[in-house]
Amino acid sequence: MSGTLAVAAGRLPPDAGASSGSLASRLLSDWQLVLPLGLFFLAFVFGPLALLGYVSLHTNVSLEEVTLAQYTKFLFDDFNLGVLGATLWLGLKVTLLTLLIGYPLAYLYSVARPFWQKLLILLIVLPLLTSAVVRTFAWLVILGRQGIVNETLLALGLLEMPAKLLYTPTAVVVALAQIELPLMVLPIITVLASIDPNLRQASQSLGAGSWRTFFQVILPLSAPGVLAGCLLVYASSVSAFVTQTLVGGGRQMFMPFYIYQQAIQANNYPFAAAIAMILLFSVLSIVVLVNLLARRVRVLSHG
Amino acid sequence: MQVVADPTVDERPSDPLEGPVRPQERALSGAASSAANVLLQRVTHRYGGFTAVADVDLEIAAGEFIALLGPSGCGKTTLLRIIAGLMRQSEGHVTIGGEIVDALPTNERGAGIVFQSYALFPHMTVTANIDYGLRARGKPKGERSAIVARMLSLVRMEQYAQRYPKQLSGGQQQRVALARTLAVSPRVLLLDEPFGALDKNLRLGMQIEVKRLQRELGITTVMVTHDQEEALSMADRIAVMSEGRVEQLGTPEDIYDRPQTLFVANFVGTANLFSGRLARDGERFTIALDAGGTLSIDAASPCSRAGRVMVSVRPEQLVFAPLGPGTLPATVELALPLGPSVVCELALDNGEKVKVTLARTGALAGLAAGSRTGLALSPGAPVAVFQA
Lengths: 303, 388
Hints:
The complex is a heterodimer of chains A (303) and B (388).
Chain A: H1 2-10, H2 16-26, H3 30-56, H4 69-75, H5 78-111, H6 114-125, H7 132-143, H8 148-155, H9 169-193, H10 197-205, H11 210-238, H12 241-248, H13 255-265, H14 269-296
Chain B: H1 23-27, E1 38-47, E2 50-60, E3 65-69, H2 76-84, E4 91-96, E5 99-100, E6 111-114, H3 126-136, H4 141-154, H5 170-183, E7 188-192, H6 200-217, E8 220-225, H7 228-234, E9 237-242, E10 245-250, H8 252-257, H9 262-267, E11 272-281, E12 284-289, E13 294-297, E14 301-302, E15 307-313, E16 318-321, E17 328-338, E18 341-348, E19 353-359, E20 372-377, E21 384-387
Parallel strand pairs in B: 3-8, 3-9, 6-7, 7-8, 14-21
Antiparallel strand pairs in B: 1-2, 1-4, 4-5, 9-10, 11-12, 11-15, 12-13, 15-21, 16-20, 17-18, 17-20, 18-19
């Protein structure tokens, strides 16, 4: 009987393609629809990028000699590799911290009543409505020697002297995590909302408790949102020039500041261009690698 | 779709359950037919000011198949979710297998529910879906794979074991959902509109299959449906619900032939409703219809008090007869040949419409629109009479 059923179910009428064809011919064809954005990207993304790549292949601004010298100079120097490593490591720490804070927040949102949902989404999105520079200065106020944290701790008698909170690696991670948090929370909220609520109830009726339901059903099904959030936060935090520089105070060098220093202060445009290209491809390859890995464990294909 | 001799009849597991067993342990025995009776006592549920379920008393015997039938919003799904423990009733008690389960969460009630949307875990294969509940109960691996294999063969899905839900048709997904629920050998099987998402051809096949499984496993089953044919064909007893109350509880024959309320007469099957005046006529009763004409019946039930009444007559209880005393004069308006039968719509002289179902044989002649005919009750037809 199941064989008969399977055949009956497999024989779907192939009329879906026919109707979409006539629809497309009435509207614009695909390439026409892509054209405006394509031109924009060509002029303002790929063009400058190509220019950057071109500049990076020269020894100096006169652009006479084509060479890979800038790249070898970067890649065979421990200081430079240290800066690259610190930047990528910073991105990882920020991503993990936002995930640690962001997932519970998104989960809370998904189980909250409508009134609390409205309040929560406002709190989550609010930081996006102010510029990253303003948010960074807010952290300077909070963490400074006479900042809110130190004043409070002193007043409570928990500290004798103001602690050095600002211009530390931890401060950079914490500030960046707060600033990038919406990028983590929003994709996870979206994916949690798309999970059929019956799945949770089905899991319970099969005898699973809340923890098993969460780890076996909810968490795996929210993986695509977690992945999207992680990639967004990672890419955004490794290149967060303002926050890295102001909260870090330049004590620890990160790639964006290094680029700025080489281009503006040292006037070494080819080397700055090479650093930019290296940062770009490092982040790009991490993103691609993580995506491939996720695909392998079927995280994406069945979400 | 052919009906074949079933090779899985002997699949009933032979675990002897000796001595008193706690429900949770009994559930662990794996696909055993540990059917339990279900008792609902004065169950009431309110959403804010709205009463979704009102004072429902229902006793379901072990191994019985009960259908909760009613229009949408009648409270039948709420009642099912209360039994499952997915929601807590405002008042009253739910007893499963002699144990009051009001305080037990869903995962400790031993009530397995199959959702209308099936709710299969999309990131797990068919095997992993069926295995899920067994793992949650911490069964050893060997036992688990034996039960999974038995369940796959029970629902005839062996060759799809490694597929993911979205690679399956609706009917196949439903079989998996059933297998997944049955694998943990629930004490009660709850089906929430189980065939609602299937197209008509598949539906009949699955109805037969579910009924077969229910018989084989002897499992207590509660099915929610708004489809009266489904309820009439599958259930041992039907509870017809309206506005949160059970209007009538009875066998399919009771419900169809002896409706106790006007609502049941109207909701189950098709009914022609006439208003008239009931009078006793020796051993028999007569009803003088407002539309003209008189019906003579053997017994007036559920209302036999003389006076104003509503009478419900099924389309198949009426036959054509020559015009004359004791018949209803009517004019043919429309005849729809539906394969084996013909449905006619006629107008009585006051304009009221009447539906009549006739066997096809020789019936088509004389059904031209506009022709006059008399209508009579077929002898012994169980017409239902209600106080107006």
